[in-house]
Amino acid sequence: MSDSQPFINTVYGCLDRVALEKLRDSYDTTTLLRVVDELAELLGDVIGEEGWRDRMLRLHGMAHTVINDAGFAGAADETLPELASEITGQMREAIARLETWIQRIEPLEELAARD
Q1: Residue 15: strand pairing partners
Q2: How far is 48 from 46, CA to CA, in rounded Å?
Q3: Which residues pair with 7 in a beta bridge?
Q4: From the centroid of its chain, how far is CA 12?
């Protein structure tokens, strides 16, 4: 590989040579596999039984009953504010996780060939 050119052609596009050399020395690609596993876990939390979807539907029923004077939908183990707080807390944790994933992926953006 000749160091005279600022770019290098690869099977996945033209990349910045310096950025590629830096990542080859410092980037652990298995971090992307950890993101895949963590994503699967998060998706399970979102769509699984008693996941976000189910809790959001329960929260809607509670809010609809209280705010719109709708018929009582059934007993709940928690209050409306407790459930809302639980859901927003879990969403904030997910946002923090997403931000971590972004930080793990961003170094790969540096490979873009620049003029």
Answers
A1: 8, 112
A2: 6
A3: 16
A4: 24
The helix, strand and coil proportions of the chain, stated in percent and rounded to the nearest 5, come to 65, 10, 30
Do 52 and 87 form a contact (C-beta atoms < 8 A)? yes
Note whether 8 and 15 are within 8 A (CB). Answer: yes
Q: Measured between alpha carbons, how far apart are the two ends of the chain, in Å?
A: 20
pLDDT digits (tens, 9 = 90+) for 6-53: 999 999 999 999 999 999 999 999 999 999 999 999 999 999 888 999
pLDDT at 1 over 60: no
Q: Supply the pTM of this predicted model.
A: 0.82
Q: What are 71-98's pLDDT values in tens digits?
A: 886 777 899 999 999 999 999 999 999 9
Alpha-carbon distance 87 to 81, whole Å? Answer: 10
- The domain limits of the chain are 7-109
Angle among Cα 20, 32, 23 to the nearest 5 degrees reads 15
